[in-house]
Structures are given as C-alpha cells and as structure tokens.
Specification:
CATH architecture of the largest domain: 3-Layer(aba) Sandwich
Number of domains: 2
CATH superfamily of the largest domain: Alpha/Beta hydrolase fold, catalytic domain
Strand content: 15-25%
Radius of gyration: 18 Å
Keywords: Hydrolase
CATH topology of the largest domain: Rossmann fold
Number of helices: 10
Largest sheet: 7 strands, mixed
Structural class: alpha/beta
Order of helices and strands: EEHEHEHEHHHEEHEHEHH
GO molecular function: hydrolase activity
Protein name: Alpha/beta fold hydrolase
Pfam families: Abhydrolase_1
CATH class of the largest domain: Alpha Beta
C-alpha cells in the first residue's frame, strides 16, 4: 500500500508528486487545501518517499497503486492533482477509472511523449558513494558538480535520510530509475479520454506545455481549462504557491 499523509475533512482530494519528489513537497499546500474543506491524501508513489520499492516502474503500475489505495480507503468521487510525473499518473488514473475520478488537475505536464532530460540529475545522484559514509555536505558537493541549480539540488536532497546512525541513503529507488528512465517520458495512449472537468495549469517560463499542445490535450480531456502562472517554471506550485492555490481551489469549487 502506498504511504500517504491524510489531513482535513470533506471531499477526498489526492495529490501526487513528480519524479524524484515525495509527499513532503506538498506539505504547506496540503494544509491549505484541508483548511478549504477537503480531505487531502498526499501520496508517495512507488519507489519514492516512504512507499515501497519495486522493480516494476510503469505508469500503469502507478495508476493501479492509486486505484488500490482508493479501494482500501473507500474513496469515491475524488478530485485528483498531479505534478509532472504525478500528472501523467493522474491522467492515466482518471482515464482508466473515470467512475472514481471527479475533477482532474494536471500541473505542468502534457499527455504527449517527452524526450529524456534527467541524465545530468541521475549522473549526480549515481556519483554519490554511500559506502564511504558521506555527510550531507559531502553529498551536496558531489551532486552540485552535476546539478548547478541550487533549488533543484535542494529538492533532490530532501530525499536524504539517516538509514542508521552515521549512514545516509536516498529514499527513492535509484537503481530502478536507472533501468527504467524511458518510462517517465511515455505518452498517454491515444484512445484514452476523460470527460469530466479538467484543469491544466502551467508555468509561464516552463516549456512543458506549449500553446500548440492544447488541441491534443482536448482530444483526451474535452472539458478542459488552461491556466498559466506567469514568471514560474516547472515547479510552479513552489514558485508561486499563492496563485497556484487560488487557481486550483477556484476550479475545484466550481
């Protein structure tokens, strides 16, 4: 069963993080959604955070995990939000299990194929040798050689934890990511459609969703709205959480 953090009372609202992320990334926004009247379930997807590790790492497997989580927690007519990889999981979940899904929010990812672009990040993570018992500073210095952007590095290093006294490790399943990296960019199958209200929200400085993608998105999600957060990149919910919360809450309460 997937690890989750649950807070609030009201309509069930599932939130899914992106690749190499975890539920903790959504802690502040989750509390706000709970205050707004939702029962918020922030998930750690398989091979991420505190959820189980598995050699199987596909969107189909991740969507099925979410379905089984809903069954176990007796969740029905749920709203769903997914960012990046979590957005792809959310799209597949909604189109596969439309009887459970009510409204869908996809943050800065489209249903199309994306060329692999995480090579530098994975090279940095793979360069860390935990057998020599590095400190947090040591790990950051190594990763910094491959990932110069401070914000991205801090996001990645949130995955560090003390496996035992004196021994750090990453929470995510790096070995499986190395072997299944092409899975992340896979598109949503052409025949999958979700007819319920859907919001695609993108960062104005991000190139993940282009104006030219809108028609293809409408083929999968005919009842769709598009919103853009200006001056925000791919981590739009972290860069402008206030506007992100306002736009998403307005959509959920329509």
């Amino acid at each position: 069963m997937l690890y989750s953090k649950i807070e609030g009372e009201g309509k069930p609202f599932i939130i899914m993080h992106g690749f190499l992320g975890m539920s903790d990334n959504w802690k502040t926004l989750a509390a706000q959604y709970a205050e707004a009247g939702f029962q918020v379930h922030v998930l750690d997807l398989r091979n991420h955070g505190r959820s189980f590790h598995s050699d199987e790492f596909t969107y189909e497997a991740m969507a099925k995990d979410v379905f089984e989580y809903c069954q176990a927690n007796q969740l029905n007519k749920i709203d769903i939000l997914g960012h990046s990889m979590g957005g792809k999981v959310a799209m597949l979940f909604a189109t596969t299990y439309p009887e459970i899904a009510d409204k869908l929010i996809v943050a800065d990812i489209g249903p199309k194929f994306y060329k692999q672009h995480h090579q530098d990040i994975l090279a940095g993570l793979n360069a860390v040798d935990f057998s020599v018992k590095p400190s947090r500073n040591d790990v950051e210095e190594i990763v910094a050689q491959y990932v110069p952007d401070f914000g991205t590095r801090q996001f990645l290093l949130k995955n560090l934890y003390w496996q035992e006294p004196g021994q750090l490790a990453f929470r995510f399943n790096l070995a499986v990511f190395n072997n299944n990296l092409d899975e992340i960019g896979k598109p949503l199958a052409d025949n999958l459609v979700f007819n319920q209200p859907t919001l695609f929200i993108r960062g104005g400085n991000s190139g993940y969703i282009l104006d030219s993608d809108f028609d293809a998105i409408r083929q999968h999600f005919p009842d769709v709205k598009f919103e853009t957060i200006p001056n925000a990149g791919h981590w739009l919910h972290a860069e402008n959480p206030k506007m992100f919360f306002e736009l998403t809450t307005a959509f959920l309460k329509e």
